[in-house]
Amino acid sequence: MKRFLLGPLQLDAGQRVLYRDGEVLSLSPKSFDILLVLVENAGQVVSREAIRQQVWKDAFIEDANITNNISQLRNILRQHLGVDPIRTISKRGYQLVIPLSQSDEAPAARSAEVVSRVASQSSRSGRTWAWMSLLFAGIAGTAFAACMHHAVGSRAITSQNPTVFIVGVRDLSLTGEENWMGFPLRSALGSYLTKNNGAVLISDIAGAEAEAGLTIDPNNYQSDTVTRTLGQRLKCRYILAGFYLPVDGQIRVDFLLRDAGSGAVMKEYTQIVPKDHLADAVSQAGAAMRSAMGLHPLDSATLPTGTQAYQDGVRLLHDYRYSDAIASLSWAVLDTPDSPTAHAALGYAIEQVGLDQQAVEEAQLALSHSTSLSTDDRLLVEARAYECENQWPKVLAAYRELLRLHPDNLDDAIGVASAKIETAQAPQALADLRSLISSSHEAQNDPRIFMQLAEAAHQVSDHRAQLFYAGEAVRLAHASGERDLEAWAMVRESWAWSYMGNNPKGAVEAKAAADLAQQIGNYQTLGAGLSALGQMQHAVYDPGAEATLEQALKYSEQAGARNAMIGILVGLGNLHEDAESWTNARREYQRALDLAIQIQRPRRQLAPLVDLADICSRYDDAACEMDYSQRALKIGQEVSNYEDTSFVYQFLAELASRRGDTDDARKNLLQALDDSYKAGNNNRVAYVQMDMINLELRMGNAPAASQLLGRVKALNLDNPDIQMAQELLGARLDIAEGHPQAAIGPLTDLTTKHPGKVYPAADAWRYLAEIKLDEGQLSEAQNAIEKSFALSRSSPSALRYRIPAELVSLRIQAAEGHGTNAREQLKALLSEAHALGSAETEQQIQEEVKRLG
After folding, report:
1. Using CA atoms, how far apart are residues 708 and 712, in angstroms rounded to an integer?
2. Which residue has the higher pLDDT, 207 or 83?
3. Percentage of the chain exceeding pLDDT 70
4. Disulfide check for 642: which of 226, 390, 679, 752 has CB 3.0–4.6 Å away?
5. Which of 19, 520, 58, 530 is CA-nearest to residue 319?
6. Taking each helix axis from N to C terminus, what angle separates 602-618 and 562-578, rounded to the nearest 10 degrees?
7. Residue range 320-341: average pLDDT?
8. Are the beta carbons of 388 and 340 closer than 8 angstroms?
9. 23-24 and 17-20 as β-strands: parallel, antiparallel, unpaired?
10. Cβ neighbours of residue 556 under 8 Å, at least 6 residues apart?
């Protein structure tokens, strides 16, 4: 492979690198191509047209492109040669006039080896962007974290500004020691592109969906098909990709901007910089990309220094603007890569939007650089880093020590309280904070203290206290002009109203919170406010609930708030499930689970796993229900989420009951009840006890069922769904205790609840049919069971609705003298129940067979 010596410089044509004393010099790809053309034609005049043809091939470019690259080349060569080696020949072209020789000696072994590993990927004309094959080869399913500043989903684009999707900024080193750089490089570049009414970024969440199913040929690094496909799916104008490569203590950074419609390369950028000059490289790359997209350049004075960026980031963290904090803190770590405080703060911000893996990487970097810090700074770094890793006992220990050193520091007091809540010590946290506000005038006027009090009160199910503390946080934040904190506190206040059963009032507060968040441009809180509003609308059967939740999803995606998105998708699934739209519910739950898996956050997988298990139950799919239940139980036990594990034990009880194992069913229900008490959730306690009532009624144990129903009523819960279930169970208990006439009124009322829905009307009509059958009123019994059938057929569950209704119908047929036909149909039902794996239903059918003789 050709190597040339230009005085002290060595040019390796094969590796496409220019060296001096083993150090790689920074040249853009086009400047290197022009230098190579001049070197290969040394002493000869090379016309601009020849340069155009050899470097740009058939692409149309303006003369200014050649002039700019020649200028950059001259500046770099002049610095090392002391003279200008390129002569301009008027109206003819350019001539390299420095003495030149060829060499067989391999330059700087380590650098050459590393760079050649990248350059060897070249597949077209030896161009430097050959290594983009490595980037595009791994696109599907591997989108990096979004630049969350003004990022949008593809469905939300309405802006006339250029839209761009940043595919990724990859580490191409073999060691992966600098793997952390990709996230802040991408975040900072995205922030630069969006500033001052700049580009509109497509979120990585939308990007991941668009990349699904793409097959990339690693040898075709400039695949027009890939670019155009992404562009079409994302409805964006540009695709931007890049990588970085550590080389001899420096970092090579490369970016490629392509037109998403044609696949044409719009701009290439290459720079080799010291590790602590990465922020400068991002600024230069951002300026080049903005120019290529037709955007106005940024005033360099508007870009933050490392210290300023850190201070801005910490302030934004205090304001709950996590996505904006990420952009500022990314600048801070790029400017000062060895700063433990900057890495710890960035990790905390990243963790808040649900990117656990990246948060842990930042935490580990922070800890590795913290040994030389003062005791105070080291403890603060440890607290934030351990929080990213969910090591809450260590978080608590660090904040306790800080509070011991600085008893009046409210930040440390909040840290202790938060860690206690996470380690199941919410009552103690509540007591500590109440003591603090009684003794500290500063604490009495700090809205953050009252926000923490509201959270602690929520954890102990003291929702009246939660409402009071959230309201105080709103008042104090408003008085101090902290608008972001005020909006977030209003969201908390809205949920307190909802937990107290006043969803209309909660919806008013949530709407006010969303309006304020939109006014101040805080998309994360806007999404949270709309999410609360949508779920409260759903609770009062407002038909606008779905549209509100979709809006919440859009704004949360723009803010990069993945945790919130998972919750909203689960909320949409709940909405569809309550409407008995099972297919749509399953779709939303699966989207939530996919997102939780994508961000590698197991605890966020819990809710969708539990809900998917419930959907499987609705479809009588025992294997599916068991799979999701076991996955949820494993995660729930690892993170001590007792509320969700109580759901799982209910599913396991149902599966045991279906197998006919009542002992195992009772054992699982007792465990579910225990976990409900641990979670401090009385709604969960009621639901589990009602499942226990169902089990006792199936076992013929009416006294035990009656005792349990009394416990449920004693909870005095203002929950319409629980009250409706209580009425149904009360009617069943009246029938079991020999008082069917007492059940007729409540059952008749239940047939009119939720018109058109299977539950509770299908059950109510079936029990009414049984009462009329036992009274010998066959015509009324037939009328009731037909109404139950009409509803049952729309349910995917044969075991819950259709088969029980058919059993009553066959009893009516037998009473009408059609016993032979009923026996044949019972055989068919027995086969169906066996196929569904329900020993319990098989036993019920066999009892009917015996009854018919």
Report:
1. 6
2. 207
3. 89
4. 679
5. 520
6. 10
7. 87
8. no
9. antiparallel
10. 523, 524, 527, 528, 531, 564, 565, 568
pLDDT tens digits for 794-850? 889 999 999 999 999 999 988 988 878 888 888 889 999 899 889 989 988 998 888
Pairwise pLDDT comparison (770 vs 161), residue with the higher score: 770
Can you name the residues that pair with 45 across neighbouring β-strands?
95
Do residues 326 and 203 lie in contact, with contact meaning Cβ atoms separated by under 8 Å? no
Cα–Cα separations (whole angstroms), residue 140 to 133, 164, 259, 507: 13, 18, 20, 40
20 - beta bridge partners?
A: 9, 23
Residue 831 CA to residue 820 CA, distance in Å, equals 18
Which of 18, 21, 17 lies closest to 8 in space, CA to CA? 21
Contact 608, 596 (CB under 8 A): yes
Average pLDDT over residues 339-347: 87
Alpha-carbon gap, residue 399 to 416, rounded angstroms: 5
CA distance 310 to 326: 10
Query: How buried is residue 72: exposed, middle or buried, by Cβ count under 10 Å (0-12/13-18/19+)?
Result: middle
- Other beta carbons within 10 angstroms of residue 160's beta carbon come to 7
Q: Residue 126: how many CB atoms within 10 A of its CB?
A: 14
End-to-end CA distance of the chain: 95
Catalogue the E-assigned strands of 652-751: none
Written as six digits, the tokens of 778 are: 């066959």
Over 607-630, what HEC string results?
Answer: HHHHHHHHHHHHCCCHHHHHHHHH
d(CA 691, CA 712): 11
Query: Residue 156 belongs to what H/E stretch?
Result: none
Do 55 and 30 form a contact (C-beta atoms < 8 A)? yes
Question: Phi then psi for 220, rounded to 5 degrees?
Answer: -110, 80
Calpha distance 190→146 (Å, rounded): 8
Q: What is the mean pLDDT of residues 1-29?
A: 77
- Please name which of 278, 234, 236, 232 lies closest in space to residue 254, comparing C-alpha atoms: 278
Q: Name, in order, each residue with C-beta under 8 angstroms of 385's C-beta and a sequence gap of 6 or more.
A: 344, 347, 362, 363, 364, 366, 367, 370
The dihedrals phi and psi of 258, each to the nearest 5 degrees, come to -125, 150
Average pLDDT over residues 469-489: 92
**Residues in the chain, overall count:** 853
Distance, CA of 34 to CA of 344 (rounded, Å)? 44
Measured distance CA(500)–CA(453) in Å, rounded: 17
Query: Which residues partner with 190 through β-bridges?
Result: none
pLDDT above 50 (res 3): yes
CA angle 808–811–812, rounded 5-degree value: 90
Peptide bond before residue 760 is cis, with ω within 30 degrees of 0? yes
Please compute the mean of the pLDDT values over residues 356-365 and round it to a whole number: 82
pLDDT for the residue numbered 18? 84
**Buried-exposed string 696-733: b where 16+ CB fall within 10 A, e elsewhere:** bbeeeebeebbebbeebeeeebebebbebbbbbbbbbb
pLDDT tier at 33, thresholds 50, 70, 90 = confident
For 788, the token pair is 């139950």
Dist. CA 510–CA 527, nearest whole Å: 10
What's at 671, amino acid-wise?
A: Q
Question: Residue 345, Cβ neighbours under 10 Å: how many?
Answer: 27
Residue 827 corresponds to which tokens in the numbers above? 């055989």
- Computed over every residue of the chain, the mean pLDDT equals 84
Query: Residue 221: pLDDT above 50?
Result: no
pLDDT tens-digit map of 622-669: 999 999 999 999 988 887 788 889 999 999 999 999 999 999 999 999
| pLDDT tens column, 400-429 | 999 998 888 888 999 999 999 888 788 999
Please give the Cα distance from 188 to 282 (Å, whole number): 7
**What is the CA 3 to chain-centroid distance, rounded?**
50
* pLDDT (0 to 100) of residue 631: 93
